[in-house]
Design a protein that fits this description.
By secondary structure, this protein is mostly beta strands. It folds into three domains: about 30-130, Immunoglobulin-like, CATH 2.60.40; about 135-230, Sandwich (Immunoglobulin-like), CATH 2.60.40; about 235-495. Helix content is about 5%, strand content about 55%. It contains one helix and 41 strands. The protein starts with a helix and ends in a 26-residue tail after the last strand. This is BACON domain-containing protein. InterPro entries: BACON.
Amino acid sequence: MRVLAFSVCFFILFWACKDPVAEPLPIPDPKLSVSKNLVDLGNISSTSKAYIKLKKDGIGRIKYTVISNKSWLIVDQKEGSLGFLSDTIKFHTDMLAKDLTEGDNTALLIVKSSINDVSMPDYQVEIKGKFTATVLQTTTPTVALGTIKNATRVKISLKKLGLEVLSYEAASDKPWAKLNKSNGTVLAQDSLEVGIDPTSLTAGAFEAKITVTPKVLGVIGKPIVVSVSGIYDDTITGTIEGHTLTKNETWTGNISLNGDIIVPKGFTLSIKPGTIIKVKKAPTPLVINILGKFVANGESSKIIEFRSSESAGTDGDWGGIVSQYDLEFSYALIKNAKVGLNFENVSLSSFGTALPSIHHVFFDNCVIGILDLKSNLESTLRNLSFRDIYFFSLKFADTKKVNIQDCEFLGDYCYIDINFSTNNSTVNITNSNFARKKFSHQTHLEVIDGFKNNTISASNCFQLILNQTLTVNGNKYLVSNSSSFANQNIGCGFMNRYPQARKKAK
């Protein structure tokens, strides 16, 4: 017993003398660190992206939230919890954000955190970069083509500024300005080709607007409008083969005509002053057939000439001009034609209210000068010269009232200078000259047998001889103030420039 008691006391004494056990130390909170405080994106584009790392040092729980103070900077993962050593926070750019401005841009990534549910101070990371808007430019805002005569092509240069993919659509506001493509993509540079098709152009100034509309990241940008302008010279010169007009034509200079010309209704053939048209002699005489409009107005110093291409041309080498009445003809020479101006196909109901305008015209070496002029209106022919005409200088058909003024009929072997195949007409001939006829069957004036009740008066005319047909079948002839001398300053006014075989009233 004594031994047991001693052992227990010893054990108690041993433990009483042992060092006391220390209290365990507290575990420190973990720490949060950010890998960068500045990120430079360089040139900002839709492919711009970067990241930062959030690192945890120690044991404990760290929660975080990452936000951007600018809408152009988008955080991929806005919140999380650091369970391991680090997290990667990725971010990218929104190119359509309104606060993304041209030039330098700066945004802040703000890292809010809590450690063991205790809020900690914010971390800030500066994100910067330079933004250049992607736009479309052209080095050719205007294209001045000058004067063109034929189909023309021109190139419009396109250039992209910026880093984004840029597509575009292109359109022309005129059908005659045709583009080689209607859309495209500009990587750095591109071009559009504009073709000017003059088929439907009228002569004179023209302008087309080419609109190029860019699109970047699905957003339509500011259009570029390019003006393409010029002057269309539709004049034709040189050799012209026979054809039917498909558009208005204007002839000028020296023309060699090798075939029939047809001017359909709705089209106009115009001849410039001073133009010389030499018509090829053919087995079937060539004609200019006017179903539309014909305008050949020369000038006193720039006479228009229609003649045979033969060096020694004769009457009938070519057919002449056949017209449906929509015609203007002045300061012009018609030579070597079968019929200078032919209105044979005109009906009184077809010409409407407009009469052909014919003055200061020289008909030389033709079979017939003017054939079958018709009118139910009063018409006037003035300042015409007829020389070396074989059959008729003038032939009227179905004419109401005609005034012939200041004309000269100089064909001494012309069969009938003025032929009337009409009824109930009134004709006034004033201040005109007539050549003496070589043979008795040739006359100055004649009403063809069977036509009646025409009244023809002559005043101040030289060498006009009465024909018996003017006083039968109800026809009347009135003459006053016959001239004893040839009238001066009448006719076309330029016959002296063409002296060959000239016949002059004496």
